[in-house]
Amino acid sequence: MPSALSRRHLLRGLTAASALAALTPVLSACGGESDAATTTDAAGTVTIGRLSNGAAKETSLKVAEVKSISALLPDAVRKRGTLVVGSGSLPSGNPPLGYIGDDQKTLTGSEPDFGRLVAAVLGLKPEVSNSTWENLFIGIDSGKVDVAISNVTVTEERKKKYEFASYRKDDLAFEVPKDSDWNFDGDYRSLAGKTVTVGNGTNQEKILLEWKAKLAEEGKDLTVKYYQETNSLYLALTSGKVDAYFGPNPSLSYHATKTAGTPNATRIAGQFSGAGETLQGLIAATAKKGSGLAEPLAAAINHLIENGQYAQWLKAWNLSAEAVEKSEVDPPGLPLDNS
């Protein structure tokens, strides 16, 4: 996802009216591109991991409508028969969460796939609308999007406008060369003497610099390095100039999957909550506050968890480490001073 700084900069450059006007062509233009990836297969079957360019194992899952859960839907949505799922994957995508597949035109990714699974439990036809991250929220606000399933973190600030049904941990991770013997055990002291690269202006940088300050107080060093380009970052990692890369777990897991079996293979060496050490950050399906969607969404997600399709979805996309035990409606989010 774009940095908070870039999001704020873009939003300042748009009036509410012009942003809303810009949303309609974005959503409609991308809807046609997404049809192949967002149409459920033969009755009761949803195929995930299509066109993933090696990021996922294509898997067909049996998922049927659960009448007791679909009965919880707001009347307007149930009668319409569709669930408009928002994906904020424009312009360049965010593998493995949402990106253009190996046919160079179809939206694929773990998040659109999950939207299809949830829609199947609700007995609704999924319609995935791809937009920029900023327009994703404008789509919810305007009613053009029912629910965003696009790596949205639950925050107390967002709760002022939206309701949530959690479905995945919001975790950061350390990526190291495959032959490295270092692992992060959750204790910042294990970083003493290491050189770590991180994205400038990111939440993970904030956490890493806090650890660096703690180590300095203990008379220990942690070197933090920055690279402007991803290729330069990974060259530094594989050449030994840095010991680890600290970033969002899905992106790092995707890279580790793609490099498996190559001379530059990497692995995940440990994870840490994106909300810090006192709170497990959560990713959630996000709907307009008061829409009445959070409860049926959570019920559908819990049905998928209880019946095994949820675990199969995560496994197919190599994201099993981000599994939650259950979906919660409006769980604790990042506090207002860290939202």
Description:
Helix 7 (203-217) links the parallel strand 10 and strand 11 (223-225). Residues 1-40 have low confidence and may be disordered. The strands form five sheets. A five-stranded mixed sheet has the order 11-10-12-9-13, sandwiched between helices. It contains eleven helices and 14 strands. The protein is globular and about 65 Å long. It is an alpha/beta fold and 339 residues long. Helix 5 crosses helix 10 and helix 5 runs antiparallel to helix 11 (309-316). The longest helix has 23 residues, at 16-38.
In which range does the helix fraction lie?
25-40%
Radius of gyration from the alpha-carbon trace, in angstroms? 20 Å
Give the termini separation. 15 Å
The spatial strand order of the largest sheet comes to: 11-10-12-9-13
The share of residues in extended strands comes to 15-25%
Quick description:
This protein has 339 residues and is α/β, with parallel strands linked by helices. The protein has helices at 4-12, 16-38, 67-70, 75-80, 110-121, 133-142, 203-217, 230-239, 249-259, 294-306, 309-316; strands spanning 45-48, 59-62, 82-90, 99-100, 107-108, 125-132, 147-148, 162-169, 171-177, 195-198, 223-225, 244-248, 266-273, 282-288. The radius of gyration is 20 Å and the shape is globular.
Present the secondary structure layout.
Blueprint (H helix, E strand, L loop, with lengths): L3 H9 L3 H23 L6 E4 L10 E4 L4 H4 L4 H6 L1 E9 L8 E2 L6 E2 L1 H12 L3 E8 H10 L4 E2 L13 E8 L1 E7 L17 E4 L4 H15 L5 E3 L4 H10 L4 E5 H11 L6 E8 L8 E7 L5 H13 L2 H8 L23
Parallel strand pairs: 3-6, 3-7, 10-11, 10-12
Antiparallel strand pairs: 1-2, 4-5, 8-14, 9-12, 9-13
Helix pairs in contact: 2-6, 5-10, 5-11
